[in-house]
Amino acid sequence: MKVESIAYGDRKVFAVSAFNRGIASWLTRLPTVWVEGEVTELRRQAGWQSVFFTLKDLEDGSCLPVSMPRTTFDGLRLELTDGDRVHVFGRPELFEARGTFRLRALSLEPIGLGAALARIERLKKTLAAEGLFAAEGKRPLPLLPRRIGLLTGNDAAAKRDFVTAVSARFPAARILIAETYVQGPHAPGAITSALAELAGAPDVDVVVVARGGGSFEDLLPFSDERVVRAFAACDVPIVSAVGHEQDTPLCDLAADARASTPTAAARLVVPDERELRADLERRRAALGRDARRIVERARQSLAADAARLTRAPGLLVERKRAALEGLAGSLRALSPKATLSRGYAIVRTDNGIVRSASSLTAGTRVEVEVAEGAFGARVEDIQQ
User: By C-alpha distance, which of 53, 60, 62, 57 is closest to 108?
Assistant: First the structure.
């Protein structure tokens, strides 16, 4: 863009607007650059199309105004605050109306420990929302694993501590060891591959990931998204024994169990053989006592049954005798003999028992039966 000047004799004079347009036009020819500084005076309002802040040089206090499109700033989801150190990518520009020089930011990245913590915190929220850390997804560890997978670095202390603790607690345990990178840029991919191989090895029922303590930067691979997702997707339960007690990489949240040290991990994955044998002995003794009690109760029950069987025939005969005596008493009470014993008699003719006086005629011979014996008689008189 050509900027026209005003001639005053031999002097060329530019209007302020023309001068600003010329400088602004010249600045557009400069390349995009990265600038490092500390964020100050961050200004962000709901109705503004841009976000404004100032970059401050920590060494000499130099300041550089910065603007950034609001949509671009919001899309980064950085939760930027005053005091954060950042790298800003952009190009210089001049706001013509006010002649204000500033850096038009196209992107920015936090730097240093604070940036890493912020990145991990954002990843933590994302993975938690997906359910990777949910308690209901944790799997129980096997009581007696057929084979234990140990993923560790070339760290003699962590490996030695775990193997020594497992051997002391349960000498028969089998351990498959995989050594790989556990820090540095190659560590996330190496850990993910080694974990998949261990989990797929024959008879491996549980995997322990052990790494000794280190700096925050040293443990960053265990908060890498690839590693955390590999922990959550592993086919067998995982115990994370990474760093010290105060360290909490994201893999701890995705693992099925967390141990503060490799020795503590050993206590989680195998039982103490001496305690196990003592417990088995107590259970064996309890089973023996229970068996003896059952046999004794069965013996007592059989003895009681035998006594009842011995008494049963006599009781049955006695009940039958009592029943017969009752029937005999009933028969005796209903027998004609019982009636005769009270002074009555049975009169018979050749035609049978006499039930009516009108069936007789004078002179008829009858036989009279009384309680004790019988006699013959002849009818002399009939009364009706």
Answer: 53
Helices 262-269 and 156-169 cross at an angle (nearest 10°) of 30
DSSP 8-state secondary structure symbol assigned to residue 220? G
Q: Which CATH class is domain 118-271?
A: alpha beta
DSSP-derived letter for residue 59 is T
Cα(303)–Cα(220) distance, rounded to whole angstroms? 76
In whole angstroms, give the CA distance from residue 265 to residue 286: 32
Q: How many CB atoms lie within 10 A of CB 153?
A: 18
As beta bridge partners, residue 351 has none
**Backbone phi and psi for residue 287, each to the nearest 5 degrees, phi listed first:** -65, -40
SS3 369: strand
DSSP secondary structure of 68-93: EEHHHHHHH-----TT-EEEEEEEEE
User: In this predicted model, what pLDDT tens digit does every residue of 90-131 receive, in sequence order?
Assistant: 999 988 888 889 999 998 887 766 667 777 888 899 999 999
Q: What does the pLDDT average to over 2-24?
A: 79
Report the C-alpha gap between 33 and 90 in whole angstroms. 6
Q: How do strand 257-258 and strand 238-242 relate by DSSP bridges?
A: parallel
Q: Rounded CA gap, 233 and 181, in Å?
A: 20
Q: Structure tokens of 184?
A: 């540095």
CB neighbours (10 Å) of residue 199?
19
For residue 271, the 8-state DSSP code is -
Angle between helices 225-233 and 113-129 in degrees, nearest 10: 30
The vertex-365 CA angle with 363 and 371, nearest 5°, equals: 135
Containing 103, the helix (H) or strand (E) segment is strand 100-110
The identity of residue 57, as a single letter, is D
CB 103, CB 65: distance < 8 Å:
yes
Q: Return the SS3 of 316.
A: helix
Q: Which residues contact 93 (CB under 8 A, 6 or more apart)?
A: 24, 27, 28, 101, 102, 103, 104
Cα gap 196→190, rounded to integer Å: 10
Query: Is-contact 266 162, C-beta < 8 A?
Result: yes
6-111 is a CATH 1.10.357.10 domain: no
pTM of the complete model: 0.53
